[in-house]
Amino acid sequence: MKSSTTRISPLFLLIVGLTALGGVLATVDTELALTTGVLLLVLGGWALSLCLHEFGHAVTAYRGGDLSVRSKGYLTLDPRHYTDPVLSIVLPLVFVAIGGIPLPGGAVWINHHALRSRRTESMVSLAGPLTNLVLGMLIVAAVSVVPMAPGLAAGLSYLAFLQVIAFVLNVLPVPGLDGYGAIEPYLSGPARRFGEKARPWAPLVLFLLLLGVPVVGRLFFELAYFVFDLVGGDTNLTALGQAVFRSLFRF
Q1: Is the alpha carbon torsion for 238, 153, 92, 123 positive or negative?
Q2: What is the pLDDT of residues 89-126, one digit of tens each?
Q3: How far is residue 49's CA from residue 128's CA, in Å, rounded to a whole number?
Q4: Where are the domains of the chain?
Q5: pTM for the complete prediction?
Q6: What is the mean pLDDT of the chain?
Q7: Residues 54, 184, 196, 222: which is the catalytic one?
Q8: For 38-64, how does the pLDDT look when each residue is reduced to its tens digit (9 = 90+)?
Q9: Which phi and psi (to 5°) does residue 241 adopt?
């Protein structure tokens, strides 16, 4: 039998089921079913991607020498193990719902002293955002190849775009984000100390700039759309999926 520290979490499987239900409802040709389906599909899919993002960090760290991630439950895909449920799951989902910029979700605490090399440390940091990119590419490929109802294709396209946004956001070399974690092992001592001090507030400043300074937000989304186009994403379907998704949040 699998150890409870590696067995897939029933909560994760429940979210898989809700996401699949959303996909089914998104194929129904009624407004209520369509909007409910896209909502479940996008929110459920995003919650799953948060878990997979953190699992990517954890499994790379485990293979790189930090065996403690197993006992911490990080290999179970259980969202409850990825720090605070509100800050790690609920708040990012709320930001997706109201703003479309997905916050970094949870975090896994890695014993960097156990990792074998600086290259391994970098790969641990990059594993999360690369997981988002791969998920986005797989979803885009599915939409392109598999015949499906327009509502389902639109919802999946929007979910794929969120994965690309998460990738672009997380690889920025800002303290507190994975992009900075990838270069941190190669920085000088003073630079690393400054990054440690900036880690708690730097992401907040970034999000304030993205949401409050139009030119910064525009440049960011232009980059995200550029990457989305590179992986073959359909911007028209994405816009439709986003419109349906946000329709439930208009008051």
Answers
A1: negative
A2: 666 666 666 556 666 656 889 999 999 999 999 999 99
A3: 10
A4: 10-247
A5: 0.91
A6: 89
A7: 54
A8: 999 998 998 899 899 999 999 999 999
A9: -60, -40
244 vs 165, 206, 250, CA distance in Å?
19, 28, 11
- Residue 177 CB coordination number (10 Å): 21
- Can you give the length of the chain in residues? 251
* 10-residue stretch averages of pLDDT, the chain, 251 residues long: 75 96 95 93 91 94 95 91 63 62 73 94 96 97 96 96 94 93 95 92 86 91 96 96 82 50
Q: Evaluate whether 10 touches 17 at the Cβ level (below 8 Å).
A: no
- What would the two tokens of residue 206 be? 């970034």
Catalytic residue list contains 54: yes
Is residue 63 within 8 A of residue 47, CB to CB? The reply is no
